[in-house]
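Input for the complex:
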Amino acid sequence: MIYRVGVVGFRGYSGAELVRLLARHPGVETWLVEHRQDAEHRPEPAGQPAARRIASEPDAIAAAGLNAVFLATPAEVSLALAPALVERGVRVIDLSGAFRLRTAEAYRRWYRAEHTSPALLAEAAYGLPELCRDRIPRARLIANPGCYPTAANLAIRPLLEAGVVDRAAGIVCDAKSGVSGAGRKPSLRTSFCEVVENFSAYSALDHRHVPEVLLTSGLQEAEFSFTAQLLPIDRGILETIYFRAAKALTGERIFEIYRQRYDAEPFIRIYRPGEMPDLRAVQRTNFCDIGFVFDAASGRGVVVSAIDNLVKGAAGQAIQNMNLAFGFAETEALL
Amino acid sequence: MIYRVGVVGFRGYSGAELVRLLARHPGVETWLVEHRQDAEHRPEPAGQPAARRIASEPDAIAAAGLNAVFLATPAEVSLALAPALVERGVRVIDLSGAFRLRTAEAYRRWYRAEHTSPALLAEAAYGLPELCRDRIPRARLIANPGCYPTAANLAIRPLLEAGVVDRAAGIVCDAKSGVSGAGRKPSLRTSFCEVVENFSAYSALDHRHVPEVLLTSGLQEAEFSFTAQLLPIDRGILETIYFRAAKALTGERIFEIYRQRYDAEPFIRIYRPGEMPDLRAVQRTNFCDIGFVFDAASGRGVVVSAIDNLVKGAAGQAIQNMNLAFGFAETEALL
Amino acid sequence: MIYRVGVVGFRGYSGAELVRLLARHPGVETWLVEHRQDAEHRPEPAGQPAARRIASEPDAIAAAGLNAVFLATPAEVSLALAPALVERGVRVIDLSGAFRLRTAEAYRRWYRAEHTSPALLAEAAYGLPELCRDRIPRARLIANPGCYPTAANLAIRPLLEAGVVDRAAGIVCDAKSGVSGAGRKPSLRTSFCEVVENFSAYSALDHRHVPEVLLTSGLQEAEFSFTAQLLPIDRGILETIYFRAAKALTGERIFEIYRQRYDAEPFIRIYRPGEMPDLRAVQRTNFCDIGFVFDAASGRGVVVSAIDNLVKGAAGQAIQNMNLAFGFAETEALL
Amino acid sequence: MIYRVGVVGFRGYSGAELVRLLARHPGVETWLVEHRQDAEHRPEPAGQPAARRIASEPDAIAAAGLNAVFLATPAEVSLALAPALVERGVRVIDLSGAFRLRTAEAYRRWYRAEHTSPALLAEAAYGLPELCRDRIPRARLIANPGCYPTAANLAIRPLLEAGVVDRAAGIVCDAKSGVSGAGRKPSLRTSFCEVVENFSAYSALDHRHVPEVLLTSGLQEAEFSFTAQLLPIDRGILETIYFRAAKALTGERIFEIYRQRYDAEPFIRIYRPGEMPDLRAVQRTNFCDIGFVFDAASGRGVVVSAIDNLVKGAAGQAIQNMNLAFGFAETEALL
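Predicted:
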């Protein structure tokens, strides 16, 4: 069976990446869903085949037989579209932050807006397969994780589960992201001349991705210090995570913890103690690469977690979730 | 005497460069002229001294005793402000394209807009000191040249004056500019993710800077092929200019032509035959560096002309013009 | 049948791209051929499958049953390896400049070295399929074209064949390349701090890729002005080509010339008159995108030709040649 | 009096910056000291005035009347040159790591080499004026601090002196540097194609700049976690520093601590609570900009410290030290 899937926001960076990756998928047929007309013209070669297009009317989408729709849209657009689609039996994979938290109250605090579908918010499955795969296959609505929490949770949770982290000393996550994470809408903050040859921190201790880390890792807010920073590159996230050991620990033991936890995971790659991934290792892939250094004498550890924010941090993970939802091999179109 | 000079558009890239360079000038006091309020906030250290500020009301500007105002503004704003300032005896140095051409007709063709002050347009002095210094000192309105024509005219005119160019074969000027030349207003075209790791041509044969080259060099439109291109860098213009010799010629002779023409010019630097400047040589300076390669056997020549688009291509040249207008040393604040 | 193919120089940029692209090819098995040991260590995830490796001994390579070997090596290494491989019945696709010209004399002039296999030089097939496909399938040695000539010839030859270019006025090709074209060997010229925020011209009128353009296009040296320039990006070549029409001509007619010439070519894409490709359109693809602007009044034309220097300019074209040599679909692993 | 000062290593990035800054200084005459001849040719305009040059012979340097010499050289070169110069009464400002630690033992551990002048090592003054100005004016040998420790110590020590940091929980310093900090010698690690669009961590917990932080701040090694990372930019260091409060604390109180400590310091600028500097604020200046965010509820703090690695992190600070040594205004040539 060929599934029909739509992409809302296909002109944005995550949406365009979705379209590019879906083109490789033998089991789906991609439809571009026009939401708001935007006039941005990009020169294109003559004579290219036309894509299938449809307007973002829920009834039309259901009538056209679309099995799923990816929302690569701002949270407020996802809030407007998701309920009507789900109601019509169209599965939704939402790449925005609209359905990632559990309660309307948490949404209000971190997104500074009212949530208009709290029941659906409570129902949504959080789509980080390696850590919460169970609920994804049958979910009507999958909340695709934020890019920062994806890299952070994959690195942190195995260590917490193994009980080797001194939580009282706190975990520090110093995160750096390429500019595509901020979306395609022009703004001064993402203008070339403001970003190039520059580097800057933003949302220190107060980023809206923080609650996703807390929910998935079980850390308390006071135990987790997070700063997001803007790298002068197009794509890639690298997070440098600092912790202190709760008990006697070695680099080899940490290596074993990660390997055992992720042994069967095709998208998680662990480096030998003392070796660190860089962004080149993961760009344009769905991998999350994890490396670390540990000083046994003092119990200090540094973990580096790297992903491509548009792939494992957005479009790739969304397709991984779709593969789970439709029963494809989880790696289809992603390796 | 200390001259009072105002800068309209001081938050833009050229305007900010003007403020930065004027701060080094012992003979002027700089006033920031608020035109349209823009909310852009950039974090700043606490406790910095406040700048002198004034609104862009011509009467207020005259009453405050400003001797000159730099307009680092779009052409339509310059068209609105310049006449009223000139009328009140405030000298104007306009960095926009509003007063660079000679006739309203030419303005209409290249800027696709009506010129509202054709008399002032006819009166304005074109502020390219090395090629037309005479009228600058006494001008009420100085039209600061475009960045592309500055680099092009300085390289081309000596060769044309010396009669060594085969004009019938045409001159090609392949121009590349950093992104700051497009101004600070956010747009998709100048967004980081669109520019980085990219390179693109625009306005081939049809750039509004072309008529400035024709007016200053004396070339006919059909003799001059120009393409502007966007470099993934902040600042700098490099133009690669191709010509064919009209008669027997050598690299040494070309070197002599340039050296004689620019012998007394502090801001023009000529390279030995076969050596070419790069952008690093001129960034953050008011220099125009010129190098070339010439093949005597075939009569083919390649000239490279490099400037910083924000300095010799904008703010630096504007101050050079101000120095001429007020009788300062031409290099004051610029070396 | 599965073909065994080796890659010499697999740690270089072109070689690594070959390995990456060949991994997608269902009809080949890739062997890494160790030539000179280089100690460069790049951190890698633990537990990756080992690649097939072999030393660069021609006898060993033949004994292992390799059907073809790609030489992603400097010209002097290719000169040393190619004859022995060809002799042993191993087909060679050479990515260096060693076998691209026709005579030892031309090689001496442009490469400033003696050619040690002039007979093989004369025999080699020039591997630019769109313009000289005939001899590739049966060639023992395929000389993969230079990156600059690939983009130039594909853009220029259709216009010359159609007789619309005024050759006496000369053709100008202003070429810009990403840094990966210079190879992976560290040098000051390709150091980050020398390249970033910079742009520079080199080898004006004297680049060793020029004779490839002359051979394939039929132009005389005096008719062709070429400058190579270094873009502060990783990959991509964009060439801006200027010509004058030999007779009455229109943009639509140029469009038809290109479309007819390349109608059946899967890797050449033509843009509508007035639209230009940028590098983003071709990066990580085997496409050559061609756009142009033409001013019918004056007969001036500007053509932009864009490729990825590591794909259509190196590894992708090499695989395209291999596909022809082994009878695969020409697009296998490349779309 | 005009002082004569020499620069060894003037072709390197720090050395070139020294020469550039010294040219603005009215009280000194700069001599280029040739050490090892390096053939690197960079095109230059014709007719530039020749610089004063001298060989790196200590006797010649003393005979020429040089009052001070800057060593912008690797540690082993500084070890070879500094003792002989000091002996001849020439003051030395060393930009390498050769004389920054206190004991040969510490040098052996962190630099993995023997120190050949332990007495001079013990005698040298550490040239971080804002924190240890006293011994600089009369020192024969000034050890100019490392770039990372400059930014770290200026941010950390006021908080430690005020006793507001919970040292048991540890301080994390996540440091990012532009590539010029690695010097001008070509290497794969600093090649353009390896760095651009990339980001990578190195020397986690084990960087040779760590002992400078411990010596100046008084922290124990186990209390300080440091990772150095390579930004794809030319120049600038930004360090993100995480701490936990030892007692009740507010952002306003932290602001006061910094302001009081640095009130009289011309090169330290403090931002209001919640505002952070970026690299643009400090590039090409001798400023160290410090901003922070503090969450009073949980006692978590994040401090950002930014400098230009070639100015406050190298050449600018070296001139600041020279100004102190010769009795010039500390800001001469630096504002």
